[in-house]
Amino acid sequence: MSAPPAAVHPGPHVERMSRVDTAWLRMDTDANLMMIVGVWMLQPGITHAALCERIADKLLKYDRFRQRVVQDAVGASWVEDDAFDIDRHVVREVLEPRPGQSMREALQERVGELATLPFDPRHPLWQYHLIEHYDGGSAMIARVHHCIGDGIALMSVVMSITDEDGLVEHRQVVAGPQLDVLMLHHVFEHDGYVHVNRVVGSAPN
Asked: Which one of 6, 77, 121, 130 is least enclosed by Cβ atoms within 10 Å?
């Protein structure tokens, strides 16, 4: 039997994970992923390039979104991902409804599939999935592992890409989405979605 990996010692680009976040990490099972999934309906739509730019500006300033997780015998560490590629984390999706299936049903089905798809542990534990053309705008699915932060604080950070200041600033470059965002926050359990919090923002006048 091989020995467990030795603890990763903190350095300039290494940070030990807290016990609470390590617990979230180790609670992952195939049937119960510790993942937060959010869905946004954006009017007007947003392009993949514009979303990548906004995420780079709003999210990547936080170390956690550039770090991968390395587990060892005594816990886990946050380590800078030297192979970080934003295109790996901001993914284009195209919905192709089956005969008789609505776009909304196709979106719900895709969210369910993504909620059961584990992250690649070689890279930071988050992804955005963008459907550029959905119901006259765009739809965006965000997946973030719970070890990156607690639900309320985490969704506040994730939703920062739609905040008013960012939109006003970004509107000078692209036709960014208004702040009429419907955010569905799901915590996925093995028997389905256990709760849904709805946060609806209205566009500034």
From this structure: 6
